[in-house]
Amino acid sequence: MEDIKYLLIKFFEENKRDLPFRKERNAYHILLSEIIMQQTRIDQGTPYFLRIVEKFPTINHLAAAAEDELLRLWQGLGYYSRARNLHATAKNIADNYGGIIPNAFAELRKLKGIGDYTAAAVASIAFNEPVPVVDGNVMRVVARLFAIDVPVNSAQGKNIIKEKLLTIFLAEEPGLFNEAIMEFGALQCTPANPNCPRCVLKGYCQAYKMSATHKFPVKLAPQEVKARYLNYLVLLSNNGRIWMRQRNDKDIWKNLYEFPLIETENVVANETLLHINFWNKHLSFPEKVNITFQKTVRKSHKLTHRLLNISFTFAAVDEIFDYFSDKGFISVSIEEAEKKPKPIVIANILTEFINCKLF
After folding, report:
1. Reduced to 3 DSSP states, what percent helix, strand and coil does the chain have, rounded to the nearest 5?
2. pLDDT per residue over 244-259, tens digit each?
3. 322 torsion bin: left (phi>0), alpha (psi -120 to 50), beta (else)
4. Can you tell me the distance from the alpha carbon of 106 to that of 120, in angstroms, rounded to the nearest whole number?
5. Which of 101, 136, 175, 181 has the fewest CB atoms within 10 Å around its CB?
């Protein structure tokens, strides 16, 4: 098994992708890239990494920014808690660590939103601390190498993965090894249809010897996907203003902006959504308000464990009245609404409206 670590490094040196956060061992770049790529493909996340680094070139620049600025740059990337935690951690580092990212796993682990994986990646790659990383790619490689038949997403499975990983870990060059095994999982030991006959580790891989690569890693059944039904009222005034509010409850899209919302247990018919009685029941408009309902547009949006069925009902009002202001809503121009950080599905519907693709 001693040869595995060197074969992985050789593979990495010959096949590694040219990624912007690999050009230097900049702890801020490594921290940012690891947080972005946690639940995002490299090709999708890289443009976000470049935009954020351009806007906030150091951890101190990020700490000094308003959270809304980061959320706006993050828009479309999903899992927005990552951005909120990143911003909180940046402020913590600026305030309590002199603007210098901690160089030890144990200290990094104390920061908000920094789990074992991210702390190990930063500590090993940026500071050469001998701690192994365990992400999805690493789990898959180790599970196949050792034919681990315990679910890797169980507590027992995670412990077994860590134990086996330590038997091939190169403590003398931890950052290089961690990057190598992650890249190997991403490029060679892929989730589906890995090219096992050409794999440099096939002589060591128990799953390959059993002709059972497709059976590993074993995983517990995924959580059931539940449906939610969100009904938005896009209320536009004749002077080009619109109502929005910032979500601040413990739910999806925290701190992002949205239109007036009614969540229901089932799909609401179009004719119901285009009638003031439905909205008045929940929003209690003033008696004399003059609303003209125009059209309902439906979208679906998939989250990890949620399928969102979303309706956007467009309506015109003579003028934006003060009623909503005591419910946390603000009146903004279309241009201001564009600049607010929003869930991508709301950003897209606003863009379609502005570009006259809905009417």
Report:
1. 45, 15, 40
2. 999 987 889 999 999 9
3. alpha
4. 9
5. 136
What CATH code is carried by the domain that includes residue 64?
1.10.340.30
* Per-residue model confidence as pLDDT tens digits over 133-155: 999 999 999 999 999 999 999 99
Helix (H, G, I), strand (E, B) or coil at 113: coil
Residues 141 and 240 in one domain: no
274 belongs to a structural domain: yes
Domain that holds residue 164: 2-215
pTM, rounded to two decimals: 0.86
Average per-residue pLDDT in the chain? 92
**pLDDT exceeds 70 at position 323:** no
Residue 234 belongs to a domain with what CATH number?
3.90.79.10
Within-domain flag for 240: yes
Burial pattern 171-186, b for ≥16 Cβ within 10 A else e, equals: eeebbbbbbbbbbbbb
| C-alpha pair distances (Å), 66 with each of 1, 6, 100 | 50, 45, 20
Asked if omega into 57 is within 30° of 0 (cis), the reply is no
Which residues belong to the active site? Answer: 34
